[in-house]
Amino acid sequence: MMRLCIFVGTMLGGYAGWALGDTVLGAGFGWAFVLSGAGSMLGVYAGWKLARKLAE
Length: 56
Fold this sequence. Notes:
Elements lengths: L1 H23 L4 H27 L1
Helix pairs in contact: 1-2
């Protein structure tokens, strides 16, 4: 369950960061890539926290 939550969090966080950088901010490929990485890291954390909550 932990791996699934982290995977989904990474995927959603990366997409959200990419969409923020590319469409909302219009910052270009480089910034969209950086924001996608930051979103992925936040997604890993959120997925990990969610998996710990569900395991309780």
